[in-house]
Amino acid sequence: MSATRTYDATRARVEGYFDRTATQVWDRLTSDAPVSRVRATVRAGRDRMRGVMLSRLPSDLRGMRVLDAGCGTGAKTAALAAQGATVVAVDISPKLLAIASDRLDPAHAGRVTFAAADMFDADLGNFDAVVAQDSMIYYGAPELAERLNALAPRAGQVVFSLAPRTPLLMTMFWAGKAFPRADRSPAMVPHAAADLGPRLDGTLTEVERVTSGFYISTCLELAP
Question: Residue 189 sits in a domain of what CATH number?
Answer without folding.
Answer: 3.40.50.150
